[in-house]
Amino acid sequence: MSQNLLYAVDLVAAAVLAFGLYFPRHRRRDLVVAYLGVNVGVLAVSATLASSAVGAGLGLGLFGVLSIIRLRSTELSQTEVAYYFAALALGLLGGLGSTTGWISLAGTVLVLVVMAVVDHPRVLRRHQSGTIVVDRAFPDRDELATYLEQLLGARVHGVSVQRLDLVNDTTLVDVRYEIPRDGAPRRTDVVTSAAASALPTSPPAPPTADRLEVRA
User: Fold this and answer.
1) Which of 151, 153, 13, 154 is nearest to 86 (CA)?
2) pLDDT for position 3
3) Cα–Cα nearest to 134, from 175, 180, 186
4) Nearest to 175 by CA among 157, 154, 150, 190
5) What's the burial of 214, exposed, middle or buried (CB within 10 Å: 0-12/13-18/19+)?
6) Looking at the chain, which terminus has fewer C-beta neighbours within 10 angstroms, N or C?
7) Which residue has the higher pLDDT, 61 or 175?
8) φ and ψ at 134, to 5 degrees?
9) What is the 3-state secondary structure (H, E, C) of the chain?
10) Other C-beta atoms within 10 Å of 104: how many?
11) Residue spans per domain, the chain
12) Which residues fall within 8 angstroms of residue 23, CB to CB, at 6 or more apart?
């Protein structure tokens, strides 16, 4: 397979990854630039190494070096890290694919298909996670899980206490939960229903004054 064709396939695959998959789902322009820049950079370096006497071994070593780079500017989610590795893999497949031919092309298609499927909004969409600051201190984990289930209106699968502040009466917790099929109630609905239950069912009767009869 022609090396120029592999370059073109890599550029198209990187554009599909950044503009067709990542940006419509996550809407971060800065990471689109990062993914395209990383892909083209790895493609250029790996293609240079493949055409020299060094061979593909150093190219794979380059992949290992790039994979441990920690971006300190902003925090990346695990999904964004997966896209980062996908951009790296596409660049290596395009730059070092002259010796493998159709295997490189199949690997490029496989990377795109896997990212398109596993990051689809409908895949495991009811399973969510997040960090919550609870305005109560819960030393007991089971009691905390029960409280979070009532608060979120969901089934809690995992609770990890990050900080327990007994002085300020707060708990910082990382929670993993599953939303019911009919959707979890909104927090405002929970508060409203709780406040409504505390209200009296009927207004109290106005006080009555005793009749005072004056006789001549």
Assistant:
1) 13
2) 79
3) 175
4) 157
5) exposed
6) C
7) 175
8) -95, 135
9) CCHHHHHHHHHHHHHHHHHHHHHHHHCCHHHHHHHHHHHHHHHHHHHHHHHCCCCHHHHHHHHHHHHCCCCCCCCCCHHHHHHHHHHHHHHHHHHCCCCCCHHHHHHHHHHHHHHHHHCCCCCCCCEEEEEEEECCCCCCHHHHHHHHHHHHCCEEEEEEEEEEECCCCEEEEEEEEECCCCCCCCHHHHHHHHHHHHCCCCCCCCCCCCCCCCCC
10) 22
11) 3-118, 127-197
12) 29, 32
pLDDT of the residue at 216: 36
CATH topology (fold) of 127-197: Alpha-Beta Plaits (3.30.70)
pTM assigned to the model:
0.70
Q: What is the pLDDT of residues 107-130, one digit of tens each?
A: 999 999 999 999 998 888 888 888
- Phi and psi at residue 142, to the nearest 5°: -65, -40
Determine the length of the chain.
216
Across all residues in the chain, what is the average pLDDT?
Answer: 79
pLDDT at 60 over 80: no
